Amino acid sequence: MRLLVVEDNEELAELLVRGLQSAGYEADVLSRVEDAASVLQTTHYAALILDLGLPDGDGLALLRDLRHRRNPIPVLVLTARGGLNDRVQGLRSGADDYMVKPFALEELIARIEAQLRRPGHLLGSSLRIANLEFDTRNRQASIDDTPQVLSARETEVLELLMRSKGRVVSKKQVEDHIFGHSGEVASNAVEVYVHRLRKQLADKGARVAVHTIRGVGYLIAEDKPT
Amino acid sequence: MIRFQSILSRIVILHVVAVAITSILMSLALSWLLNYSADAIHDKAMQEQAQRLAGHLRVGGNGDLVLELPPDLQGLYSQAYGRYRYAVLDGNRHVLFSSLKDGDALFPADTESGEVEFLQQHHGRATVSGASIRKLVGTRTVWVQAGEDLANRDVLTDDIVASFFKNVGWITLPILMVLLVADIAIFRRALLPLRQASEIAEAIGPSRTDLRLPAETVPREVRPLVLAVNQALDRLEAGFRSQRDFTADAAHELRTPLSILRTRMETLSDQAAGKALVRDVEAMARIITQLLEMAEVDVFEVDPSERADLHRVCASVAELVAPLALAQGKEIALTGADRPVWVHGNAEMLTRAIRNLAENAINHTPPTTTVEFVVEDNGTVSVLDEGPGIAVGEHELIFHRFWRRDRRRAGSTGLGLSIVRRIAELHGATISVENRTPRGARFKLWFVRAA
């Protein structure tokens, strides 16, 4: 799977490529908007990592141009600008995700993978946190490589949480995911499923914690003894 | 020397002084003119009377001079009337004729005098003023004197002169006062464009550097000042802009090297050292972010029509900070209203304010405790922590730029709370801080509710 990195700082570009390679991705590097635009017309890449401040123009212009030509390539915008308008503009111009420098390489790769796992961009099917693994193809959770039996609802909640590893999933998102947009949802239904899932995972020795952020949602993370 | 605060008061006071002086001088001048004219009329009349008397002198049969007055003149000079008198003197200063009882001359005889002489003389209590003319009758030169008792002077003339101050002098004062009022009105009107320019100037600030004073409407005399002020504003705006650009550029230029640094550290073989270094880089990145935010907030202006859902904003902040808090063993909770709470404001700015409060709370709260967001229907949001609270006397200080209780603490800029306060000010929101029992602090932001 090949990615395109458009970044004018050679050192950073090189580090990015090396990091991506160690995660199993090949990447090409370009430093100019013009070059990127012509290469993207002839070559197919799985995803684009795009820096905004480029020597011959604004990365946002390239992004708008891509979207204008209905190119659906997942784009992760990488920028030193964390400013208000920059962020809004970046997402409006069609970026799928947005990271402000200095970013964690690990998170960048996680976010790229999240993009690649979107429907139509199926990447490897395995999601992993500590000793907990979830195979998205057959929807099978395993702890220490031992397949576990979870109810359908618990499995759905777990899948959603693991897809958003390291990020908060709102209660509304969980509701929508389990019940769809239609139908009545008991106000505490989500709590009940999360509670059951948490108990199941703990009982079976998974070193993960399903955190509740009261009034907001849930987050799954590795359970580190503090 | 008196210092006037306003041009108007200066004009009024100086004008009043000028009016007072002018009215006094004008009255004096007018009355002097009047007296002068009255005297001139009197002198002329006396001279005419003397001429007329002289016209009735002739040389008699015995060679002596004879004065035969017609009855109207006899009446005029009669003792009974008592107002006019005459005397005729010869070259030897002998009184030939006199209307006076004692046959005296009106004025001391002066044979050296010219054709006409105007004289004044006291006779007992009366003051006689009149003319003396030289006249040649036959071969003899005589002096004919005609005078008037000033105590009985022409009533009409006297009345005019006497009542001048009462009737005329006082008119000048009101007229001049009317002029003063008119002047004030004219001046106020002339100053109106300046007042309008002042109102515009009031709106100029760091967030509105684009405004300029109207040079076309102000009086031409003031225009150089207005133009100079506008040029000064141009220079200030350019300064502001370059400062803004500098802050943004600096943040930009610093972040790329930090990214490189961070990525290198993440790939270090010594993982423990790498993690510690990454924390340092994160602290530095945070400082840069806050400097940039401060710079942005300083020049931000809220669109009055903008609305934001406080509940949504708090939920997004909670989502954003939760991973960080959980990693430190701290909990995040959002309570209070669970429906949208609409307030006037910019959602991104509110997010920043609440995020800064949240980060501040997370930094000051020990592990296993909770940072709680409470959103209420009345448009308030509180951020509660279980840290040490705020020391008495620091409730105001903490909002100052770069203020830090513990300067050794890494990653703290002392900017976070000042950004919060600035955003609150931008939104017309009030901010308060109080300590909780048994421990912790509560920051409360009170926004303006939107319909």
Protein model, in words:
- The complex is a heterodimer of chains A (226) and B (451).
- Chain A is of the alpha/beta class.
- In chain A, 40% of the residues lie in helices and 25% in strands.
- Chain A has 2 domains: 2-116, Response regulator (Rossmann fold); 126-222, Arc Repressor Mutant, subunit A.
- In chain A, helix 2 packs parallel to helix 3.
- Chain A is elongated.
- Chain B has 451 residues and is of the alpha+beta class.
- In chain B, the strands form 4 sheets. In chain B, strands 4-3-7-6-5 form a 5-stranded antiparallel beta sheet.
- Chain B is rod-shaped, with a radius of gyration of 51 Å.
- The A-B interface holds A 9, 11-12, 15-16, 18-19, 22, 53, 80-84, 87-88, 100-106, 166-168, 170, 211, 213-217, 219, 221, 226 and B 248, 251-256, 258-264, 266-267, 278, 281-282, 285, 289, 292, 296, 300, 315, 318-319, 322-323, 326-327, 329, 331-335, 338, 348-349, 367, 373.
As a percent range, the share of strand residues of chain A is 15-25%
What string, H for helix and E for strand, traces the elements of chain A in order?
EHEHEEEHEHEHEEEEHEHHEE
Which percent band covers the strand fraction of chain B?
Answer: 15-25%
Calculate Rg of chain A over CA atoms: 20 Å
Number of domains of chain A: 2
CATH fold field value of the largest domain in chain A: Rossmann fold
Given as residue ranges, the uncertain stretches of chain A (5+ residues, pLDDT < 50) are none
The coarse overall form of chain A would be elongated
Shape type of chain B: rod-shaped
Instruction: Compute the average pLDDT of chain B.
Output: 84
Helix content of chain B: 40-55%
CATH architecture of the largest domain in chain A: 3-Layer(aba) Sandwich
**pLDDT averaged over residues of chain A:** 85
Q: Describe the biggest sheet of chain A?
A: 5 strands, parallel
Unreliable spans of chain B are none
The most extensive interface between chains reads:
A-B, 36 and 42 residues
Count of DSSP H/I helices of chain B: 9
